Amino acid sequence: MAPIFGGGVSENPTFSIDPISGEEFTKRLLTPFSQHKLTLLLRQHFDVDLMLRMMAQELRLYHTEQKTAIRNNPGSGERGHQRRLRHGSKQRTVSPNILDTKNQDIYYQLPGIQLTQEQKHRQRNRQRAHLQQITYHNSPSDQDGYEMFRRVALHLSAIQDQKKLYAEPLTLERNWTIPAGAVSAEGLFQAIEKDFSVTYDQQKGTYTLSKQLLGPILITNYDPDILCCEERAELYDLINPWIENDVAFDIRPGYPGGEWPIRGSFRLRSFHTILNFISHSLSEEAEYYVEKDPRTPPIARDENPSHTLGLYHRR
Question: Where is the composition biased (Basic and acidic residues) (predicted)?
């Protein structure tokens, strides 16, 4: 017995090009790039500094506003209205305004206070409300905005040079609790076994369905898999609502580049806006050199070109 091989050859392969035009062309030209386009290039080891300088039109940094501490003043006339909280054998005297909507987050931080899931969610929303968002435009005509944008991009580039820059989707876990009597176990497992994991609580007589969902892309200086569920929820609340052409980042202390802990997001441009940026940067809005932040680690080969795109004339 002998194997039989077969094959075919095409002597004149043909290629066809279908140009896009009209509404489809306009839509592709004017629609901002999605975050997945950026991460696709990052995974091919493109320099994040030059990519962001070309593809991002603005930077948004989150700054935590300073909160005013609440102090007890025994002579303020509020002594009769003060409340006492017990923690172990100690008593804590708390002014009544610590329990209002504005200052509940301070109350929740006192030792011995147990929070419900609803209170934790409200606390995250209040913490988010205390965040101040400042926008910096990637335009040489806006000196302050342009220089801050360049410094943050250089900071990410320095982390990338150490091979410690991650760009992964933020994975979230959603849970649903169903009474065991509401469904049949056999029918439940057949319907959801591919998408959900199921745990059964015999004491409560309930099924808990869990499913992992891919959230927005997050650029970090740490492995996102180390985050616990609460931290993932906090980050999701921070960047929610998110849109497809925003790329969030979270640089934390204790990891490479953590000397400058920053949080924020980049808003990506469209192809039309990229062309405009390049044309203006070569003429009336010329880019210029910006030194890295003192807290930024050394950059490999000191790569920090003044222009995103340069033109060289050969004679």
Answer: 293-305
| 3-state percent helix, strand, coil for the chain, nearest multiple of 5 | 35, 25, 40
Range of the domain at 104: 82-127
Query: In tens digits, what is the pLDDT along the chain, a chain of 315 residues?
Result: 556 655 565 666 676 776 666 777 888 888 889 888 888 888 888 899 999 999 999 999 987 654 433 333 434 444 333 333 333 434 443 333 333 444 444 434 444 445 555 555 555 555 555 567 899 999 999 999 999 999 999 999 999 999 999 988 887 777 777 777 766 656 656 666 667 777 777 777 787 777 777 778 889 999 988 888 778 777 777 777 777 889 999 999 999 999 999 999 999 999 999 999 988 888 888 999 999 999 999 998 888 999 888 777 777
The reply to whether 34 and 114 lie within a common domain is no
Q: Is residue 15 part of a domain?
A: no
C-alpha dihedral sign at 16, 22, 23, 29:
positive
SS3 assignment, position 248: strand
Q: Is the pTM of this model over 0.85?
A: no
Pairing mode of beta strands 83-87, 90-94: antiparallel
- 155 in the same domain as 167: yes
Q: Rounded to an integer, what distance in angstroms lies between the CA atom of residue 287 and that of residue 138?
A: 10
CA-CA distances (angstroms) from residue 172 to 35, 125, 210, 237, 259?
A: 18, 18, 10, 11, 28
Q: 167: Cβ–Cβ under 8 A, 6 or more apart, which residues?
A: 38, 39, 42, 43, 217, 218, 219
